[in-house]
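=== RUN LOG ===
request id: a7f3
mode: sequence -> structure
chains: 1
length: 159
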Amino acid sequence: MNKKGQAVGIMVLVSVFLFAITGLIMYHLFTEINTSMQADDSISDRSKGIMSSNVEPIKNWTEGSVLLIFGFMSFAALVLAGMVIIRPLFLGLSLFLIILEIIVARYFSDIYTRVAESSSLAATSATFTITPFVMDKLPWLTFILAIILGVVMYGRSRL
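=== RESULT ===
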C-alpha cells in the first residue's frame, strides 16, 4: 500500500483503540458518579432517576461508537483504496507495512485487555460485550481489512 493507504490503516487502529479506552473510562466514571448521586440524600429523587436512566444508554453509545468507528473508517479506507493507483512493484513494502499494522493491532488489543482487566475497571468492562469482542479480534480484523484493501488496490492496477 502506498503512504495514503497505510495512513488510513493506522488511523483506523488508533481511532478504534482510543474510542475503546475512552469509552470504557467514561462509562466507569459515569457509573461512579451515578453511584455517588444515588447514595447522596441531598439530591432530589427526580435527579437520581434521570441519572440512573442514562446509565444504560451511555454504555450502549460507547459500545456502538467503537463498532461504528471501525465500520465507517474501514469503508472510507475501501473507498480511498479504490482511488489510489498502485504498481505491483510496491508489494514487498505493502506486505511489510501490513505485518507492522497487525503487530500494532496486537499491542493495542493487549493494552486494552490489560486496562479492562485492571482491578478498578474489571467490573465495568464485564458489562461490555461489543468492545471487548472488537478489541480481542482487532489483529484479525486488521488482517482481513488489509487483504480486502490489497485486493481493491492491486486489482485496480490490472484494469
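=== NOTES ===
The CA atoms of residues 98 and 147 lie 9 Å apart.
Residues 3-39 form the longest helix (37 residues).
=== END ===
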